[in-house]
Amino acid sequence: MPIEHERRRFRRYPLRLRARIRHDTQEVDADVLNASVGGCLLVAHLNVSAGDTIEVSIPDLQVPPTSVCVVRCAPTEGGFLIATCFETAIADEPALALASSTPTPSRVS
């Protein structure tokens, strides 16, 4: 099923926040492109597979290193788009709405 037709349980908020991803022995900078209470979309120079567990920290949302499940990973010009699902809620709707209205410069190029 194409991404644009997926059903969403939670509202997605467009973001541009810095994040840090760790997978096995690799640790890379990333950008959070959007997030919801249920997961987030990242872009990073890290190729992972659906089903992998990665550790993500998002300082601007005061999210400490947290394990998330990779739903899908697709190559793009800026690295890889990594769709994730949170195992437990790591941010609430008001925090996401506030972060969505406060732009932060990108780190990944």
From TrEMBL:
InterPro entries: PilZ_domain (IPR009875). It comes from the Bacteria. GO terms for molecular function: cyclic-di-GMP binding. Residues 6-88 form the PilZ domain. This is PilZ domain-containing protein. It comes from Melittangium boletus DSM 14713.
